Records
---
Amino acid sequence: MKAMILAAGRGERMRPLTDDCPKPLLAVGGKPLIVWHLERLATAGFREVVINHAHLGSLLEETLGNGSRWGLNIDWSPEPPGALETAGGIANALPLLGIEPFLVINGDIFCDWNFARAANIAKQMTTDLAYLVLVPNPPQHPTGDFALGAGRVAAEGHECLTFAGISVYQPRFFAGLTPGQPAKLAPLLRAAMATNQVGGELHAGRWEDIGTPQRLAALNRELHYEPAV
C-alpha cells in the first residue's frame, strides 16, 4: 500500500515562518514536522510514499531526498505555483499512486493515529470510495466538518466532527478530475456521502493542526523544544 503526504500548501497563516521554509519542514520537537510522518509510516510497514509540493518544493526534495534514510522510497509530485488544491494535487499524483487504495496524510498535522490500520481499512473498501479519520472539534474549529454515525460519514448530522486530514481513497474517487487542474476535496466527499460511499471513524488520541505560529510554539513547548532563532 502506498501513502501520500500533502505538502504543497503555501502556509499563509504560518507566515513569516514559511516565507523561506516549507511548512512541513518547520521544526517540531527537534525535527521537521514531515519527518514524524515518514518515521511513523516506516514503522507501520509502508515503503512507497508520494509527496506533492509547490511552495519552496526544492527545499523539501533537498532535505528529504529519496527517503532511503527511513527505509522508504519517496516519489515527488511537483505542482505549479499556487498548487492544485487537495483533490487536484491527489489527482495529479495518481500515476505515482497506482491502482490500489492509498493513504493520504496532511503534511501539517501532528497525530498518533496508527498508520498500520490503513491496509485493513483498504481491504474492506469494496464499495466505498473514501474513509475519513475524524477527531473532536478543536477550539479553532468548533463547528466541525462532517457527521459520523455507525461507521458512516455524512455531510450533515446532529453533531459534526473535524476531518483529521488522514484518509484512505480508492483511485477511482478522483477519476473525473483533470490532471494538472485545481480541484477542492470537500465537494467530492459530499457527493460520495450523498450516495453512502464514505466510511470513517473517530480518533480520540493525539491530534494537532499545526496551522499557526502560536500552535507550533505551544506544541514545541509541550515537547520541551525551543527552535533556534
---
Amino acid sequence: MDNINENRNFLLSKINDIHKNSYFKMAIIPKLIAVSKKQEDYKIDMAIAIGHKFFGENRVQEAKERWESRIKLLNDIELRLIGPLQTNKVKQALKLFDIIETLDREKLAKEIVKNIDSNIKTKSFYIQVNTGNELQKGGIVVEEANNFINYCINDLKLPIIGLMCIPPENEESAMHFSLLKKIALKNNLIELSMGMSNDFQEAIKFGATSVRIGSKFFGDRQY
C-alpha cells in the first residue's frame, strides 16, 4: 500500500515548519514539486486524486506518454521539465510543460525563441546553473551565469523567472544554495528551484521557492 497522502501531508507540514522559522518566512511558502520520473501511473493518479497540482518530469518523451492525455482533462496541473532538454525536443516540450527549468546554453535558448508562438503551453523558464562546475552535469557554469541570464532576458526577451541547481553529491548543499540565491538577487530573479529529497530542508533555509521531491513523495521508483 502506497502512503502517498501520508507522505504528502508530512512533506507539506515539514516545508511549512521550516519556512516559517526561516529568514524568508514573509515570502510565499515553497511549492512541493512531485517528481514523477519512473513512477508507476497509478501513483500519479493517486497524487492527482488527493489534490496535488505540481509535478516534475525529467524526460520529454516519458512525460509526453504519461501526461498528454491527462492534461487535456485536467487544466489545473502545473507540469515542469526538470531534466535536460535536447534541441530536437524543444517543440514537444513547449507544447507539454508549463515551466521549463533547465535552460542552460545559447543554442537551446535560440531554439526555444524560434519555436515560441501563441500555441505553446510553456509560459516561464528557469536557467539551470551548474554551481559545482561539474563536467558531467547540465547547467551554465557560474562564471558565465550573469551574462547568460542577461542575454536570455534582454536580448532574446525570454520570460525568465528564476534559477535552478543540483548541488554535487559529495559537497555540502548549503554553499550551492547560497550561491544560487546570490546570483538570483544580482539579476532580480525571485524563483529558486533547489532542494530534493535529501536536502530540501536546507534549501528552504536559503530561500527556495520550490523543492523537487520524488521518492519521499511517491515511494521507491520502478526501474
---
Amino acid sequence: MTTFERLKATRDKRGTGFWVLLDPDRLDKEDLVQTTVACVEHGADAILFGGSFLISTNFERMIREVKGVAHEIPLVIFPGDTNQISSAADAILFLSMVSGRNPELLIGQQAKAAPTIKAMGLEPIATGYLLVESGTQTTVEYVSNTKPLPRNKPDIAMAHALAAEYLGMSCVYLDAGSGAGAMVPVEMIKAVSDYVSIPVIAGGGIKRPEDAEARAEAGASFVVIGSVLEGRVDTGLIRAFSDAIHTNL
C-alpha cells in the first residue's frame, strides 16, 4: 500500500483526515519533536513537514528527528522549493501551483525536482495547489509572484480544480496560505468537493476546532492545521481538533 493509499484508507475510516503542518522555520528541534509526539498520541493522521519558502538550513536533520518519533503515522513533505526533498519522508506533495500563472511553479521547479525524487525512491503525490485570497498578502503570494483565487468566486476554484483532475493529479489543495487573514470559505470547499472526484485538502488560518469541523462537513477529504500549534504543545487542543475533524467517530 502506498502512503497516499494509506492516507485515503484512514480518511475512509474516519470520515475526514486530520493533518498537522510543522514548519521547521517556526519551531525549534525540541518543539518539533514534542509536537510530533503529541500529534501521534492524540489523533493526527499525518504530519506535513515544510511549508516555508525561507527554509532552515537544518531541514534534513530536523526531518529525520521528526521521522524518528512519527513512525506510526505518515510523514509527508510540503515543499517550498527544490531544496526541500528528503528520503527520510514517506512521501512528498508534488505540487503544481495551478492557481497562478508563474511557469516556474507550474512545471519549472517540478522538472528540477523529479529526478531527485526518483533517485531517492520517494513517493510523489501529484497535487494541484490552489492559493485562495485571504484578506491579506501572504508569504506564498509574495514569494510566488502569483495572484490568489478570489474567495468569493467558487466557480473559478472549481474550474481550476477540475483542470488539475483532468491533468491527472491525485488531489487538490485549497490553501489560504501562511499568515492568512481569513480561511478558505466553506462554500468554496463544498463547491469544489462536489465538483471533482479527487480528494480535496483544505488548510490555512484554521485556529478553532469548530472551523475545522465545518470544513470537514463541507466535504474536505483532509483538513490541515499548523500555526495554531506554534509556540505550544497543547495536547487538549490537538485532541479537540481530532474529535472535530474525524466525522465518522
---
Amino acid sequence: MKIKVCGNTDLNQLKELDELEIDYAGMIFYPQSPRYVLNKLSGKDVKDLDLSLTKVGVFVNATEEEIRKQMEDFGLDMVQFHGDETASFCSRISDHIKVIKAFRITDLETNIDWLIKEYDEVCDYYLFDKGNAGLYGGTGEKFDWDILEKSNIKKPFFLSGGITREDASALKEFHHAFLYGVDVNSRFETEPGKKDMRLIQDFRNDLKKYV
C-alpha cells in the first residue's frame, strides 16, 4: 500500500521522506491553508531536489494558468484537486500530468458511484476525505469507510481523513479491490507543515506489517 504525506513545507523533510521511501509528498497551493507551500518553499529549491518520491501539488479551484505555473516551477509529477473542479477541467489538465480528484464526504448517505461517475474517464486516481459542507480541505477527522466498501469504485484511490498510526491495523480490515494508498497529514505533525518524522517512520513500518 502506498503512503502519501501531505502538507509539506520543509525542504529537509522532503529529503527525509524520500529516504524513508515514502511514495508521495503533497504540497498545498491553497492560500487559505496553514500549510500553504508558497509561504515556505521556493519552486527552484524543490525542483532541484533529486527525489525518488512523487511530488504532488494540491490545488483548490485554481486557474489552469496557476496550476501550469506551479507544475513547472516546482517540477510537480502529479496534481490533486480538492475543490469543485469539473470533469472537463480535470480532463484538460490530465492531458499534461496525472490527476488525483479528491472528494469530501460530508454525508454518509452520499452516493459515491454517482459522485465519481463523470470523472472516471478523466482522472487517474481518487482520494476520499472527510469534509464539511462549504469548506475546502480535510478536517482531520475520519468518516465511515464502509461507505466506500459498498461502492463500485473502479479506479485506484487514496483513503484520507484523520488517519493515525493506530489505523495501520484497522486498514487490514478494510477491503476494496482498488484501495491504492493512504494520505496522512495533520495527525503526523508537530505543528502545521512540520512533520513528526519518527511517527511517520513508525506508521510506515506498521503498515508494512499489517497490510
